[in-house]
Fold this protein.
Amino acid sequence: MVAKFNILGKQVGSHYLALLTLGSTFAIAKLAMGGGDKNQKPTPPIAASSGEEEEFIKQFLAQAEAESKPKAH
């Protein structure tokens, strides 16, 4: 036998209420832990004394990042 509750004029079994509670709890937790864009990395500001130096630093960082990525076979 199942305990039944009267919700909005309908008889609802307690096991349905338990499943609804668990399902909504896990769904909300999954949505909350989703986070934002994973590709976005915060970088510190480049404190270069000239535009040429800043461009060199950007090129160096791009090259170092390209070398660190694993190559596909």
In short: The first strand starts at residue 4 and ends at 7. The first helix runs from residue 14 to 32.
